[in-house]
Structures are given as C-alpha cells and as structure tokens.
Amino acid sequence: MVCEFADRKVYEDLSPQSATVRKQAVQIEIEAPAPLAFDVIHDYQRRLEWDSLLSVAKVLPPDELPGVGVCTRCVGKWTSCWMVMDTRYVTFERGRVASVTLVNRSWLFASFHATIRHETLAPSRSRVIYIYSFACRPQTLAWAWEPIVDFLLNRETQRRLHSLRDYVQRV
C-alpha cells in the first residue's frame, strides 16, 4: 500500500535496519469514558491543545477524519528536533483501539509502530495503554542509540498521557 502526500510517494514497507525491535507500553487511568478519551486522541483539530510533544498534527488529504488506511502527519517540537512522522492507520475501532505505522523515511527510525488501547474500568473511568515499537537507524549504531531513544520515548509518552488525562478531565 502506498500513501501519497505532497506529490511524493511514501512506502509502507520500510524494513528495519536494526537486528532488534524495542517495545514498550505506558498506561494511565483517566476519569472519563473510553470513547471520550479515544475521540480526544484522534481529534486532530484539538490535538495540539493537549499533546505535549507536537507542533503539528493533521490528517493528510484527501481524507478529513482518521480511519483505517488514512495517513496523518505529526511534527515534533524542538525537543524532538522537529521530527516529521507520517503514519497510516492500520486499525481504528472507536473507543477500543487504534494503531499506526510509520510510512515516511525518518532520519531516526527504521521502523515505528504505535497502538493505543482503551479499557473501560467503570462507566466514567478508563485506562489508556500506549504501546510502541521501533528500530533505529543506522544499524551500525542502533545498539547504542536505541536504549537512549527508548528512555526518551517512554518519558515523553508518560508526559503525553498525563497531558491527555488532565485535558480530558477538564473538558
């Protein structure tokens, strides 16, 4: 499958250059129903109101809303060197789970995948579980680089989930 944006083709199959793929899960409980938390995360019009990592978050044309096969662009802030990550939704089940895979060639990642699961704990309480996996490039430096990237991603994911929780509980 190919996503096209800005008149250039970006291919789904970017094989990892690292022998290992790192995987982490970060979770948080939120005083809000799972469908509400899900909707806030995937509302790209409101994403920058709470997401502590991003300076740009948008659904790429021709689509307007996220869903399976839809491509998005997220651009980090200065703390992530304004990294551009174009992703494609591979799963999108409102209120339950959504997952994306990196489709552009990143200077840092040979591969990147993220899944956000939502679990209902009570009618107005839920758990958000952010699971990510990645491999860094170049392969020759991945052994040294990946533990650092993993630490930073984990820390930033925790911050993002806390920001999400605070935002959802305010609205």
Automatic annotation (TrEMBL):
Q: Which InterPro entries match?
A: Polyketide_cyclase/dehydratase, START-like_dom_sf
Protein name per its UniProtKB record: SRPBCC family protein
Recorded source organism is Blastopirellula marina
Instruction: Read off the lineage from the record.
Output: Bacteria, Pseudomonadati, Planctomycetota, Planctomycetia, Pirellulales
